[in-house]
Design a protein that fits this description.
- By secondary structure, the protein is an alpha+beta fold.
- The protein has 4 domains: 19-267, Distorted Sandwich (Beta-galactosidase, Chain A, domain 5), CATH 2.70.98; 320-415; 417-549, Alpha/alpha barrel (Glycosyltransferase), CATH 1.50.10; 550-665, no CATH class.
- It has 14 helices and 37 strands.
- The strands form 12 sheets. Strands 3, 4, 5, 6, 7, 14, 18 and 19 form an 8-stranded antiparallel β-sheet that branches.
- Helix 3 (322-332) packs parallel to helix 5 (375-388).
- The longest helix has 22 residues, at 477-498.
- 50% of the residues are buried.
């Protein structure tokens, strides 16, 4: 995003208390009240149908610059905007003053509302107890608008209580930090009708913010000022600037005399109703891990501008990524019988090709595309083939035609860094680029060079050619004439190119003269995809090598721990993390490929027997650490495999869901 001239930026880029959070319960639990221990710094996430979101920690102390109550996915200008940081609550009960929120000021944490927190449920819902009161705070986003609702229920009143609710706002791009500045427009329009409403226009070209009170009477006192020096410790740990200033326009003042409930709403449009809202979601007393994963998957399928179905790659900092969407599509859509959604996603991507290929990141609004990918086009063919098996819709024909066009574009050199050689293999030229999913760059060069012949690209390429040739017999006979001999040559020489007889697995890449000899999970594409001509005994040996060195309780390592380049931990600043990203770090999404490989070689029963303990470990992660109710992007390569990266990742959830569904409902 090109920042407007008014935007001042600092950056381009727990306590030991343990709470009891209610687990949703697997089928074998004996009590609906089963609990799971988690820590106050565990995160929560809630989204709306458009991919706007709220995210924070259980103790309400923001630890990331991304934490906040309203981040607008498509604000109409640039990247998503983090609009609302917090709504503070200050209770006055006699001489006692109680605050429920929390901040890190660098040298102190105050207030510390977690001291009064007795229960957290991942709706999210907080229950506080103090001075004889029980206060429940529920939070959700409106599906039809970019707005957050906070509902308060107060019980135990024996005397009047004064309450002040103070919104704090940011109104800045999600990756930036802001400072106190004279460009913030603190002027307010206060309307006291059926509901008390406060309207402000914080910056030029940024949506308005409208705060309103519902179900209770009150007043608003304008006293616009800045909170300076709020610190985000996880940003510091990740090597980024970690302090910013927040603006508050004033506070709602209420006097509570009776038990009851009321709401505050903050959004970019007025509320459609003046009535206090009721959170529709309720906790089911007994839910399986599959059901919980199914709910988690809903966060990633969103309706974007132009009536477009898209996939958010991860929360909080990712948007639409074609590669992620296409890997996630089988789990997010096909495994959940959302075939129309799969068609919509594929059609959306097909309408936004770049130079005839699927871009890594498609253009969205005024945010430009990113074309650093070749596997996205190959994954599009795979996703189309899987979708075609689930529908007889005439829409699939146009997508099959698009796949034929993609193959022709690759063959015609649409990406000059990639060519098809005389034996039909895809060859990626050497240079400062990373065109597969192992895409980390440090100082402009790939950390995991996968140039030359990459085993996953060529497995997807061969599988895609084989499938496309079958379609082309009816759709485009000239395509068969062009590509049938290429596919035959590639099939004849595939195993010869990649098999390492002495090591007993498929090499990850081959430079044209020598294999790199590294044991990585990318060979699973060759084991899992149908029609890849590898001897069955060799497939078993390769799978055994992957199982022995790469499989962990939470996913697959990206490199064998025996390799000198292995990095056991994913932590530190950007460069340090990028050097570990695909050099041993564990990725849960690879479990889908692994399970497919076991099923293809040893059968479904063997796959499920092997996956059950892994699913149990990921269920514990899902319910007690990271972002509660989601699955993290990555884990450390070494035990205890601490989570890292994006705390809520689409392909992590989707592939684990797909594996879990293989085991049954």
């Amino acid at each position: 995003m090109i920042l407007p001239s008014w935007f001042p930026s600092r950056s381009d880029s727990a306590s030991g208390l343990r709470l009891l959070t209610k687990a949703h319960g697997s089928g074998d639990e004996t009590s609906a009240e089963a609990t799971a221990a988690t820590t106050p710094e565990a995160e929560w996430l809630t989204v709306n149908a458009g991919g706007s979101y709220a995210m924070g920690t259980i103790d309400r102390r923001p630890r990331r610059k991304y934490h906040g109550l309203l981040t607008v996915r498509e604000p109409g200008v640039g990247e998503p905007l983090n609009m609302v940081a917090e709504v503070e609550e200050w209770f006055q009960i006699g001489d006692e003053k109680v605050a429920l929120h929390s901040y890190n000021w660098g040298n102190a944490v105050e207030p510390n509302g977690v001291d009064y927190l007795t229960r957290f449920e991942p709706l999210p819902r907080w229950t506080y107890q103090f001075c004889g009161l029980t206060v429940t705070r529920e939070l959700w986003l409106e599906d039809g608008a970019d707005a957050v609702w906070i509902r308060y229920s107060v019980e135990g009143l024996s005397q009047p209580v004064d309450l002040r609710l103070r919104p704090l706002i940011r109104c800045r791009p999600i990756h930036k930090l802001t400072v106190a500045n004279p460009f913030m427009n603190g002027e307010l329009d206060i309307e006291d009708g059926e509901s008390l409403r406060v309207v402000m226009h914080p910056y030029k070209d940024v949506p308005a913010l409208i705060s309103s009170l519902h179900g209770a009477s009150g007043t608003f006192r304008a006293d616009g000022h800045w909170y300076e020096g709020v610190h985000y410790e996880w940003e510091r740990e990740r090597g980024y600037d970690d302090a910013e200033d927040l603006f508050t326009p004033g506070e709602f003042k209420l006097s509570l005399e009776h038990d009851g409930a009321f709401c505050i709403r903050v959004g970019t449009t007025p509320a459609a109703s003046h009535s206090p809202q009721v959170l529709s979601s309720v906790l089911s007393p007994r839910r399986s891990f599959v059901q919980e994963l199914d709910d988690a998957a809903d966060a990633y399928l969103v309706q974007l501008g132009g009536n477009r179905t898209g996939v958010i790659a991860g929360y909080p900092w990712f948007g639409e990524w074609s590669r992620d969407a296409l890997i996630a599509l089988p789990g997010l859509c096909l495994a959940r019988d959302e075939v129309d959604k799969a068609l919509e996603i594929l059609e959306s991507l097909a309408s936004r090709l770049e130079n005839g290929l699927v871009p890594n990141i498609p253009q969205s609004g005024d945010v430009p595309s990113n074309a650093e990918s070749i596997d996205a086009s190959l994954l599009f063919i795979r996703a189309t083939a899987l979708t075609a098996k689930r529908t007889r819709s005439r829409r699939i024909t146009a997508l099959q035609e698009a796949c034929l066009d993609l193959i022709d574009a690759i063959g015609d050199g649409a990406d000059r860094r990639i060519r098809v050689d005389a034996r039909g293999f895809l060859f990626v030229d050497h240079g400062p680029w990373a065109l597969t999913w192992m895409d980390a760059l440090v100082e402009g060069w790939p950390v995991t060079p996968r140039q030359g012949y990459a085993v996953d690209l060529n497995a997807l390429w061969l599988s895609g050619l084989t499938t496309a040739l079958r379609w082309a017999k009816k759709l485009r006979p000239e395509f068969v004439d062009r590509w049938s001999e290429t596919a035959k040559k590639l099939a004849d020489h595939f195993e010869e190119k990649f098999w390492l007889q002495d090591q007993g697995f498929l090499t990850d890449t081959h430079d044209g003269h020598h294999p790199d000899g590294q044991l990585r999970p990318n060979q699973l594409w060759a084991l899992a995809l149908p029609g890849i001509p590898i001897d069955k005994a060799n497939k078993k040996r390769a799978l055994a090598a992957v199982r022995d060195k790469l499989l962990t309780p939470v996913g697959l390592r990206t490199l064998s721990p025996d390799d000198p380049a292995y990095q056991p931990f994913y932590r530190g600043g950007q460069a340090q993390r990028d050097r570990a990203y695909h050099q041993g770090t564990v990725w849960p999404w690879l479990l889908g490929l692994y399970a497919d490989s076991v099923e293809a070689i040893d059968g479904r029963d063997a796959a499920m027997e092997e996956m059950m303990p892994v699913l149990a470990a990921l269920c514990a992660h899902f319910r007690t650490e990271g972002c509660i109710g989601q699955i993290s992007e990555v884990f450390d390569g070494d035990a205890p495999h601490n989570p890292g990266g994006t705390p809520a990742q689409a392909w992590s959830v989707s592939e684990v869901l797909r594996v879990a569904r293989m085991a049954g409902p």
